[in-house]
Amino acid sequence: MKHKTLIFQDNVLKLIDQRILPLEIKYYEASNYQEVCQAIKKMVVRGAPAIGATGAFGYYLAVKELIEKDEVDFSNEIKQAKSEILATRPTAVNLSWGIKRMENVLNKAFKKDLEKNYIMDNLLKEANRIVQEDINNNKRLGKYGNELINERDIILTHCNAGSLATAGYGTALGVIRAAYASDKGIKVYIDETRPRLQGARLTAFEMMEENIQATLIVDSAAATLLKDQVIDKVIVGADRIARNGDTANKIGTFMLSVVAKNYGIPFYVAAPTSTIDFTIDKGEEIDIEVREDKEITEIRSIRIAPKGIDVYNPAFDITPADNISAIITEKGVIKPPYQEKIKRL
Which of 168, 191, 235, 302 has CA atoms 20 to 30 A from the CA of 65? Predict the structure, then answer.
């Protein structure tokens, strides 16, 4: 993609503001960890890998601020900052994964009694490493996923799992990019992905930039396309994968998996191994974020529902492993049964 999801320069984190895409391309700037927290919470940046990288830079900025204050209880204050960053989006495991990597670097630096400048240099290197690793892993993932794609396949995708959801290239869209680059003549159907329209606004934006042939549909049209065998494969991303293969992804993913399974359409999840939560056994243990009512009752601040109506707005749902044909990672394609194969990762 022509525009980078995130840029860290001169101690300022610049994030492409995904709330206003595709109407305007503008960067949100965060110079402290509190502004990073707001960016994640308000969905300036979204997508599990992108949130993980953003959280890493947020942690760096927190350490930078606190390490210069002589009268601060650094240990407690950095724990508080860490808690604030982690609380911004509870479902995406990459956030805690990225913070843990940064925390490990900090702890090792303190044990070695390094000077402040060396500590900050090591932390910045780790955050940049997370970004580069994500891009490299997504490209490897795309290569493995491309092996599952046939000539002239028509692919359905839900939400946005592209460059905008990662540090670059993408997961589900990484597979699509790799297939397109292989001249396989693929076509893509994009679910609009209510309520925040990540498909209509973000995936469509990325496909247009890449000149990949794509068609936008309302979410409720997907079942008919699957029933009529128009779709050859469904490929989605993930925000968290349990050890048994159960997967949390954008709300509506589970419904797609049920219909795809019913009509014999392969349903693939594309995600780096950093999205696998090795601490939980099954999807029921994943904390599902519930977001504010106005995401459903309003579109760009214009009210579309009557005042006072009750709203239920979960951001994610759980797709059971039984509905998933394969999980595509940077280490290869995993097929059922998942438990032991995921354990080996």
Answer: 168
What angle (nearest 5°) sits at the alpha carbon of residue 199, between those of residues 234 and 163? 85
Claim to verify: residue 181 and residue 282 sit in the same structural domain? yes
What is the number of structural domains in the chain?
Answer: 2
Torsion of CA 27, 31, 32, 34, to 10 degrees: -30
Q: Which domain holds residue 125?
A: 6-138
What length does the chain have?
345
Q: What tens digit of pLDDT does each residue of 159-217 get?
A: 999 999 999 999 999 999 999 999 999 999 999 999 999 999 999 999 999 999 999 99
* pLDDT confidence of residue 70: 73
Would you please indicate which residues are annotated as catalytic (active-site) residues?
239
Cis previous bond, 22, omega within 30: yes
Q: What is the DSSP string of 189-229?
A: EEE--TTTTHIIIIIHHHHHHHT--EEEE-GGGHHHHHHTT
Q: Report residue 162 as tokens.
A: 């592209």
Model pTM score: 0.95
What's the CA gap between 120 and 343, in Å, rounded?
34
Whole-Å CA distances, 108 to 65, 103, 114, 120: 19, 9, 9, 12
What is the tens place of the pLDDT at every residue in 26-48? 999 999 999 999 999 999 999 99
